[in-house]
Amino acid sequence: MKTNLSLLLTYILVFLGINISSTTLAVTPSIQASNIVITNVTSITATISWTNGDGENRVVFVESPGNFAAAPSNNTTYTASSDWNIKGSRLGTSNYYCVYNGSGNSVTLTNLIPNSYHCVRISEYNGSVGNEQYLTTIVYHNPEAFGTLDIPPTPSTQTNNIVVTNITSTSATISWTSGDGGNRVVFVENPSGKAAAPSNNTTYTASSDWSIKGSRLGTSNYYCVYNGSGNSVTLTNLTPNATFAVRISEYNGSAGEEQYLTTIVSGNPKSFTTFNVKPDIQASNIVVTNITSSSATISWTNGDGDKRVVFVENPGNFAAAPSNNTTYTASSDWNIKGSRLGTSNYYCVYNGSGNSVTLTNLVPNSTFAVRISEYNGSVGNEQYLTTIVTGNPISFTTIPVAPSTQACNIVVTNIMFRSATISWTNGDGDKRVVFVENPGNFAAAPSNNTTYTASSDWNIKGSRLGTSNYYCVYNGSGNSVTLTNLVPNSTFAVRISEYNGPVGSEKYITTIGSGNPISFTTRGFIRDIKETSDVIELIRNKKDFKLTERNNQILNNTEPLASVEVYPNPTSSVITVESTKVSEKPMNVSISSIYGNIVYKVTTHQNSINVDLSPEDSGIYIVKVEVNGVTTVNKVIKN
Q: For residues 21 and 341, which has the higher predicted lDDT (pLDDT)?
């Protein structure tokens, strides 16, 4: 039947003189599209699907408001647009517009009018462009009508109190207090500007992996990292040591009809900075130079960190290490200490990108530990490398200062033929060295940074003081020493110097103190004594002795001769020998038993000395004092 009609039409056209050699008319389809179904309806979108007829293609028209009246015209091409804001070809003068032209069976419309009524009409057709033959019959569910939903309400309460936790160099967790929207979108920006806001009816695809970014917010640097109804998201693959801005918007509505709340509230937007990555190579080869008693210069080989912190501890134990995300304030003045490292004794002396620092106001003769840590990151975001490497940490010791108060009041007791005990009052040094010289000249002094080995045995002498005859008999922190194997009836000089500092770094005070130096004489047995000063003559006769009348008168004289006092008399132990006459010359004192044994002998620049007679036997002792060429003799009774 179709063939006969086509032949008949051809005969008519030929009869009328119309050339049909270049155009073959298409055959109109016989089965219309049917069963139109509208799904996924929102306030602005809808999906139209249908059952195709037997045409090669079909056109879909949508009308708002709908009246079903219009139909497509043959040999007319209709351009389609599924975006209702950009309408396709109009169907005549109706309100129908083409939303689809093709061979498929569905189309999704966008930007529809919310809460509005629409008609859908579909026509099957055959034929190429400009030669379309449309089937315009109405069948089951074609046309079909549908209504869009109303616009969802914009939320009234915005997301607030954004908190960023678990920050590392490449990750962070963002949490928040949700507003009253059905959902919310979270955007993150780097670098941060906080300027953009989401657009209504726009769906943003989220990715919490910063290396696979989600939807971009316009032309800003904001990217969507979360879209949902929850209250937290964890970001990964962030850029280390970078600042990010976070902005969250509540919204209502399904995909494509989102109504966003874009107001800014407390804690939204919010920025945070990722940690930097730790350096890989630690500072090393710490060297301390220009060490004095109160200063030192520390230098080192830098690692691969942006900066480094230098800590110094006194006393040092190397135990503490800096904490990440902590800024340490430096001070190279030890009197004004920098930040403390936890509860340790480490204090920050340098924080920067250099390789040296000079410390001042250090404690003399003290040991300090030095530890350096490389780090990356800005203030409050530091990532420290805490490994220990060659030459880091190290320790150094400041040079000591000499004491200010010299040892004084040297007293020599228990003087025997070959021994004597030297005692003294200590100064303010950590230690002191005692030198003894025979014969004595008081001239030599110890040298700084020199260690003197002591021997109290005069047969095994200690260190010699330069080229003098002084030898070290004591080196320590005490206040007495007993000498042995001395030469009988010999005069010795004693000199003591206080010092500070460890072995090889000694700092000596070499000033002369009160009663320092002094001299003493070991005992010698004297059988006959005659004093040329015509003061005393002692004559030993077995166990008894006799005094000449003149000497007896002198010995029994209760008044001291010249300007010398000896007291107490009698005594059980210590006597004081005091010259009341001021003289620049030394005072020579000797004490002898009535047998002629010298029990004590000393030359001193003091005008008063104490002599301990407690080791001596009870009896009468003769005290002879010579001052400025005048000799005085006194009798002392020892109980």
A: 341
Question: pLDDT tens, 358-389?
Answer: 999 999 989 999 999 999 988 988 999 999 99
Kindly compute the dihedral angle of the four CA atoms of residues 89, 90, 92, 96, in this order, to the nearest 10 degrees.
130
Phi, psi of 3 (to 5 degrees): -65, -45
DSSP 8: H
Q: 23 falls in which pLDDT band (50, 70, 90)?
A: low
From residue 201, alpha-carbon distances to 118, 154, 158, 249, 259 in Å are 20, 11, 18, 13, 6
The rounded distance, in Å, linking the Cα atoms of 466 and 444 is 7
Q: What is the DSSP string of 9-53?
A: HHHHHHHTT---SS--PPPPPSS--EEEEEES--SS-EEEEEE--
Residue 173 bridge partners (DSSP): 165, 234
User: Between residues 295 and 256, which one has the greater pLDDT?
Assistant: 295
Contact assessment for residue 505 and residue 438, using Cβ atoms and an 8 Å cutoff: no
pLDDT of 631 over the 80 cut? yes
Terminus-to-terminus CA distance in the chain, angstroms?
Answer: 169
**What is the model's pLDDT at position 44?**
86
Amino acid, single-letter form, for residue 25: L
- State how far the Cα of 201 lies from the Cα of 257, in Å rounded to an integer: 4
State the pLDDT confidence band at 630, using cuts at 50, 70 and 90. Answer: confident
What are the angstrom distances between the C-alpha of 489 and each of 524, 577, 600, 602, 625? Answer: 4, 21, 10, 12, 18
The pLDDT score that the predictor gives to residue 193 is 62
Phi-psi group of 442: left, alpha or beta (phi > 0 → left; psi -120 to 50 → alpha; rest → beta): left
For residue 455, pLDDT over 90 is answered with: yes
Q: d(Cα 302, Cα 158) in Å, to the nearest integer?
A: 50
As a whole number of angstroms, the distance between CA 66 and CA 392 comes to 85
> Cα–Cα distance between 440 and 492 in angstroms, integer?
6
The H-assigned helical ranges of 85-146 are none
Taking Cα atoms as reference points, which of 51, 58, 95, 107 lies closest to residue 78? 58
- Residue 618 clears pLDDT 60, i.e. is over it: yes
Q: What share of the chain is helix, strand, coil (3-state, %, to 5)?
A: 5, 40, 55
Q: Is 538 exposed, middle or buried (0-12, 13-18, 19+ CB in 10 A)?
A: buried
User: Running DSSP on this structure, what letter comes out for residue 110?
Assistant: B
**Residue 424: CB atoms within 10 Å:** 25
Q: Are strands 232-235 and 183-189 parallel, antiparallel or unpaired?
A: unpaired
**How much is the pLDDT for 526?**
43
Evaluate whether 249 touches 159 at the Cβ level (below 8 Å): yes
pLDDT of amino acid 317 = 63
Going from the C-alpha of 446 to that of each of 255, 394, 401, 407, 465, the distances in angstroms are 95, 32, 15, 14, 6
Q: Which two tokens stand for residue 293?
A: 């008693």
Tell me the C-alpha distance between 595 and 524, whole Å.
Answer: 12
